Amino acid sequence: MAVYTDVNENELAAFLSDYNIGSLTSYKGIAEGVENTNYMLHTTKGLFILTLYEKRVNVDELPYFLELKRHLAMKGLLCPQPVAQKNGDMIGELAGRPAAIVTFLEGMWIRSPDVSHCEELGTAMAKMHLASVDFPMSRANDLSVQSWRPLWNLSKDRADNFSAGLVDEVEGDLALFEANWPTDLPRGVIHADLFPDNVFFLNNKLSGFIDFYFACNDILAYDIAICLNAWCFEKDGLFNMTKGAALLRGYEKIRPLSAAEREALPILAHGAAMRFMLTRLYDWLTVPDGSFVMKKDPTEYIRKMRFQRTIISPSEYGLDLAGL
Amino acid sequence: MAVYTDVNENELAAFLSDYNIGSLTSYKGIAEGVENTNYMLHTTKGLFILTLYEKRVNVDELPYFLELKRHLAMKGLLCPQPVAQKNGDMIGELAGRPAAIVTFLEGMWIRSPDVSHCEELGTAMAKMHLASVDFPMSRANDLSVQSWRPLWNLSKDRADNFSAGLVDEVEGDLALFEANWPTDLPRGVIHADLFPDNVFFLNNKLSGFIDFYFACNDILAYDIAICLNAWCFEKDGLFNMTKGAALLRGYEKIRPLSAAEREALPILAHGAAMRFMLTRLYDWLTVPDGSFVMKKDPTEYIRKMRFQRTIISPSEYGLDLAGL
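The joint structure predicted for all components is written out below.
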């Protein structure tokens, strides 16, 4: 649930006077989203989304996220577009927080994606990877392999109580990642959080991506690895190879993977499971129950991490190796 | 925060196929509201609100609320309008819950109402009271004086721990209400929950009321009494007589109060403070912290109850008694 900051009508009116988006007729807090406060604005010019950036977001990084959305849209990719103030700024201040307005992206996120959704996701992700090749800004992934051990150390003491044996498992995995994490794969801008709730569809066609606040420069295939975990497991915890195959097929229609990228998929997917397990475990053990942060049970990603640890060949994701 | 029930795109599409409201382009959970789950729907025909009625709502009472909104709108009062299904029904089922769609009411609720807002509120409330004189349905107020003692008994054991002396106070007040609650004042349909977040304004004009799910047949002046508590206290806890005067003046422009109604205002406002104190206290002491129900600290209404207990004359609310 994501209204951490209430905005009153007077401060909102003052804020909107810096924009050319018509006159406000209503605004409502949106329940979705876990990091920031989002309002849907209805004005005489249409619908917009207002985001107030809460304390987990580093203000200095906002230009990267907003310029990236603008860059992608100029290349024809669908995502919310930052709306500039009359003076050209894309970031203002509202209720003591950095705030920005973006255009409203039509579409809905799919609660139970099917095979065709996975294929479309792969295609759109590959287009995004290609479209951002010439994006001039850069941002390190602060949730990649180098951050996992410090994050883990904050949960480690309580981890075996949460899930028996977890400490030995994670220690083993971290040593593996630190020794073997790929360093020479193609890099570029990745979304890094393409969970189903950040991908909109309209009439069963992908209508765009939202929520670029984890976007960064990293290994392109790591974005695929995150999606294999987020889109291709069934509710019973089993990996659906048909969905994995569709995701990879959709991706390779636009950007075929190199042999090195294919071979790296198992370790990347294993690491991606670790990354989401670690942030969820930390929140679960650390964030007080009374807080508004939506905590997700880390168990799902402990299971995915265990699954990924067993994978030897990318063909186990459904990747067609026939052409190699 | 009010998304108790997530709705997936397939069940929503099936539900909407029973309506003539165009084709869905997006839906988002709304954070406001404490009793039910609300989604904002955007379709090719505009904006709508979808409500899923959660377990606190009695399904048998839904026709009263929905028909009342239809009745008021026919009389020219602004409120969300129920949208009927193709077969004429106003209530369907979605995600295992009764569900209804209403038109989208433009406007915003005022976080810090000023004197002019209070006057407009009074006027609109009086119009609503007159417009519902010929509303044919009836619903008892299940949160009126007869329900307060049973509700109190569920919290009484823990009440002194919450606020020292509360048990003696409430027992005294309940005896007072049970002996003296007015029985011969004009009755009709009241909203019974006209807090600022249920009253929308657009360009500083009242644009309508929402959330009729406490509406019932009761003493008309009790609706005023609820608003004296909800609109006319400042954040420091002091009653603002200028706001009280404006509310009553606005009301009497449309529907002048009888001498008996005026004299009853102190006991009605005292009782109204009791009613909201009791539900908040019950939720505070009883609803588990982990639940999604938004609990409100009862302290604010304990203070209002104490204030109202001291009131002898309606002139203390700012009521102009010169004409009497």
